[in-house]
Write a structure and sequence with these properties.
14 strands, 7-stranded mixed β-sheet, about 30% strand, 9 helices, 2 domains, Rossmann fold, Alpha-Beta Plaits, alpha/beta, about 300 residues, single chain, 4-stranded antiparallel β-sheet
Length: about 300
């Protein structure tokens, strides 16, 4: 998964940590994350400012793997090579600083605020004292190891669609492909969806999603598995009323048949995590498969969409 993603490094209480960061564009996010992970051997953390859409990619580690000067030289050389290939992945200097663990934790508290999705759902971090409205479901999610706190517009669009698609009669079924933090699956449980399945390729994401489900007392309503979308059977006996696929463009296109073979004939597919420059490719793929775009939103570099079979 992408964006709002935090690495797996855990700070030791009382010990400082090193942060190596680069600012980049939405298009350069994956390239810069891969570059830092390759050079420094640690998983990256990605923060996207919900208002400016500026992307900060960071690595956190207890000790620098080599002298600071060498890290700067290696990163700058790698960036030059990327630019020679026509890529413009970064727009700022390499930032390397030592920070206290408490400062690291407190920095997330400045960025993650409670979010409301109509009068139906309140998503908030555990440190928030925000009270729900009457009849409003509450979900607690802290920035952690995996993508998904509701702050990013792609996640927010999926949550809005979950609220809009709630059944007034029978409970609607839900499948979350690439669950990340589990926010969508847990929100679905809070909104009355049944049954609910979720999966992710990343074992850390699965562990975090299960922990979040437990924290929100939704572990019995949500089945969370480690699975690879590309290795699932092409056809599925289980069908779902709503499917959320917050995935990269290439997966949405290449795995369209697998995704659609799990969608009820009157169901809705919510696709997100797509750059607006790539959304046309996704729309063409699903239109050719017999679906119609029924809702879409563009925010900065991102575009999300909801599809349903044409009647």
């Amino acid at each position: 998964m992408r964006r709002e993603r935090q690495g797996r490094f855990c700070a030791v209480p009382g010990c400082p940590v090193w942060q190596i960061s680069l600012r980049t564009s939405a298009e350069g996010e994956e390239t810069i994350a891969a570059l830092l992970e390759t050079l420094l051997g640690e998983p990256s953390s990605v923060y996207v400012d919900a208002q400016t859409q500026r992307v900060l990619v960071s690595i956190y580690c207890p000790q620098l793997p080599c002298p600071e000067s060498e890290i700067r030289v290696r990163l700058r050389a790698s960036l030059r090579r990327l630019r020679k290939r026509g890529l413009k992945p970064a727009a700022g200097r390499v930032a390397i600083r030592k920070i206290r663990p408490q400062e690291w934790v407190e920095s997330w508290k400045k960025h993650f605020k409670p979010l409301e999705f109509g009068h139906a759902l309140l998503v908030k971090p555990s440190w928030s004292r925000c009270k729900p409205r009457a009849g409003q479901a509450v979900m607690v999610v802290d920035p952690g190891l995996s993508f998904g706190t509701g702050q990013h517009p792609t996640t927010a669009f999926c949550l809005e669609q979950l609220v809009a698609c709630r059944g007034t009669g029978r409970a609607r079924s839900f499948l979350d492909i690439g669950t990340g933090s589990g926010i969508l699956a847990i929100a679905a449980a809070k909104l009355g969806y049944r049954p609910i399945q979720a999966f992710d390729l990343d074992p850390t994401a699965v562990r975090v999603a299960r922990a979040n489900a437990l924290q929100n007392r939704a572990e019995k309503q949500v089945r969370i598995l480690q699975q690879d979308l590309t290795r699932l059977p092409l056809r599925s006996a289980a069908k779902f009323d709503v499917i959320c696929a917050n995935l990269a463009c290439d997966l949405l296109i290449d795995q369209a048949r697998r995704i659609l073979n799990r969608l009820e004939p009157r169901g809705r597919l919510v696709s997100a995590g797509i750059l607006k420059t790539q959304f046309g490719q996704v729309q063409s793929t699903y239109t050719a498969a017999g679906l119609k775009l029924i809702a879409t939103r563009t925010e900065k570099e991102w575009q999300s969409g909801a599809f349903a079979f044409q009647e």
